[in-house]
Amino acid sequence: MMASLGKPALDDSRRSMGSPKLKGRENAKDTLCRNVTIYGKCRYEDKGCAFNHDPTKFSAMHQTDRFGSPESTALFSVGEVSWVIASIRELTYMGSSSNSSSKKGLNVDSPSFTPSLLSTNDTSSKKTTTISPKAASAAPFLPKSVTSRSNTSTPSIRQETATPDWSVPEIQDFVPQSFDTSQVVRKAPAIIVSLQGTSNGVLASAGAYDPFVTTPTPLATPGSVTHQVQTSPFSHDATALGGTAFFSSQTNFQQPVQYHLYAPIGPHSQNIMGYQRNVHDLFLPNNFREELQKKAAATLQTLPNSSLPAHVDHFHSLVPLDLTHQKNATIFGYPSWIYKAQSSKDGNYYALRRLEGFRLTNEKAIRSVQAWKRVCNGSVVTVHDAFTTRVFQDSSLIFVMDYHPLSKTLAEQHLAVGNRFQTRHITHVPEQVLWSYVTQIASALKAIHSNGLAARIIEPTKILLTARNRIRLNSCAIMDVVQHDTQRSITDLQHQDLVNFGQLILTLGANSPNIMHNHGKAMDHFARAYSPQLKNSALWLLNGLQKDQERNIDIFINGISSQLISSFDSALHLDDQLTSDLNRELENGRLVRLLTKLNFVNERPEYEHDRQWSENGERYFLKLFRDYVFHQMDAQNNPVVDLGHVLTCLNKLDAGIDEKITLISRDEQSCFIVNYKELKKALESSFQALMKPTRRLH
Ligand SMILES: Nc1ncnc2c1ncn2[C@@H]1O[C@H](COP(=O)(O)OP(=O)(O)OP(=O)(O)O)[C@@H](O)[C@H]1O
């Protein structure tokens, strides 16, 4: 049937761009009106239709007319012929006429008809259009007037060639879910409407909430399918090649380039061909994935049967984070403990720092935490709240802070302090790493000081290393509550921050927690190991290079601006790296959604009291498709476990392409040839059925 479509498609020479017949209407009376051919009569016969409405006059011609073969008559008598088919003819004709404007009709040299791969080339633009094989179910053809036609965005060349009674809206191809449907709507709104009822379930359900509808994704890089689908000379669809034997010439055979749909842009291996992919290219780098998964596992860790309170205010599931069980009151003046806990208010995880035995004497003290909530800086562990509690059987002060899973303190990382990492060999901190710490702490202090606050504690056990070279001050706000009655001015405290900052740099540079006991030795060591700029920066922080010199964090930041720029550049590089890593995973979410839909339908034991629902109708194809994707056996009867095959099939399904596949039932008694477009439609409609609210039985 598709092959027979070709001949009538080519007979519409009156719309040919190159045909002299098109130039005027003088030959219209000699041409049988198509409405008569298709519908038996023309509604516009008495309303100005210029064509001839007497079929008997043409019966003789039918025998000889090279365009009006008997096949064409049979075709046109099919009641379901629609404007889509009309367009097929028009487009096909345009394709052939543009190649040779002088050719008026078919002869033995005429190219074979290609129903689903049609192209039209004019001198100014190149345009390729494919036709949905579901053309038969498209809306019936409705003649339009010239005036309405002229309102459309149809290219002018077609307006010239159109006739008032036979004008056809420009056909828009099937638009898979992954295409930018907004563009389609803009270009041909009328066609979207007609597609809704036909092949594209996504468009049909456009108004409904569907958690599985993914954002439009370009399908591929070079050679990708745009909303005007490119014709592929390598299509697997034999009918698309006009019935020519696709495999007759092996030399012509090439891979279907159009279908390399799984094309995340990512790092490229040198030793593989351009079209090849490593499995690793499709996922996050292993070490990064492992790091994230470990962090997730640490976040979700629980401690069953612990002796800790079940609830501390609205926090529950406490897990201690400090692994040394020694009471240490040197920093805050009270022994401190830290726990991971989950909030029952928002479900997030927090770090709770508890100061044991703290008695609140002044309400104002705890209110000072409010000011810390305004400090929003990437190098400060955010403080959320503070409250007192008796659930630990004492009077405790609790600070609620951001939880950073699997973080270490700088002391654990560089000074071998703390049980966990004592066996690790402590290495010299490279200058670049130290500069990175310096710039981050400078940024933290800038944010703190400009809020009229002081960090008050800048020391290695209270700075968290939350990722590679990423640090955060971790004890902010605590001293403001604990030592609320202190008489020191804020300027004084901010100066002290600078001194503490300088000491931290020297301590880390020396890899020794006690180096500051011998200031001279610390400086000597530092001068040998690091650049003069870093040494001078540390000296400036400690006491200023000149006496009575004004010192504040802004001046310091000006002094290290070149380092700030290089830190900023490193941050941008990291950002690029993360974006590239993210790109690798880009398509995976889409495929997970697709798989989820498929599995909602496949093997469903019952739907609306029908135990056979998932085995019947279009669901049966989906079941066989599942077998085709996942349960194939090779010639040696080994299971085919090929991720490439799975990804290719799923991507083709997602795109709903025309390629046909053979599905065979498990008992090998039935065999179906379906294309991905039909499978996609089946999946969409089956899933939409599941989304329907269930009918309640009374
Ligand atoms: N906000 C946080 N998020 C995640 N983990 C944290 C957080 N704060 C601290 N930790 C973890 O708790 C551990 C102990 O922190 P803490 O500040 O008590 O250090 P410490 O070395 O035990 O100091 P001290 O001897 O003063 O208690 C750290 O190693 C860190 O892994």
Automatic annotation (TrEMBL):
Q: Name one GO cellular component term.
A: P-body
Can you tell me which residues bind ATP? R353, D402, Y403, H404, P405, L406, S407, K408, T409, T461, K462
- Protein name (database record): PAN2-PAN3 deadenylation complex subunit PAN3
The chain positions of domain Protein kinase read: 324-607
- Sorted alphabetically, which keywords does the UniProt record give? ATP-binding, Coiled coil, Cytoplasm, Metal-binding, mRNA processing, Nucleotide-binding, Zinc, Zinc-finger
Outline the segment boundaries, as ranges, of region: Knob domain: 601-698
Region named Disordered:
1-26, 95-162
Organism, by scientific name, is: Elaphomyces granulatus
Predominant location of this chain?
cytoplasm
List, as start-end ranges, the regions of compositional bias called Low complexity. 126-140
Among the record's GO biological process terms, what is one? mRNA processing
User: How does the entry describe the domains?
Assistant: The N-terminal zinc finger binds to poly(A) RNA. Contains a pseudokinase domain. The protein kinase domain is predicted to be catalytically inactive because some of the residues important for catalytic activity are substituted and it lacks the equivalent of the binding site for a peptide substrate. However, it has retained an ATP-binding site and ATP-binding is required for mRNA degradation, stimulating the activity of the PAN2 nuclease in vitro.
- Show the InterPro entries listed in the entry: Kinase-like_dom_sf (IPR011009), PAN3 (IPR030844), Pan3_CK (IPR041332), Prot_kinase_dom (IPR000719), Znf_CCCH (IPR000571)
Q: Which residues form the C3H1-type domain?
A: 27-56
Where's it found, cell-wise? Cytoplasm
Instruction: Write down the Gene3D superfamilies for this protein, in alphabetical order.
Output: 1.10.287.3700, 1.20.5.5160, 6.10.250.3160, Transferase(Phosphotransferase) domain 1 (1.10.510.10)
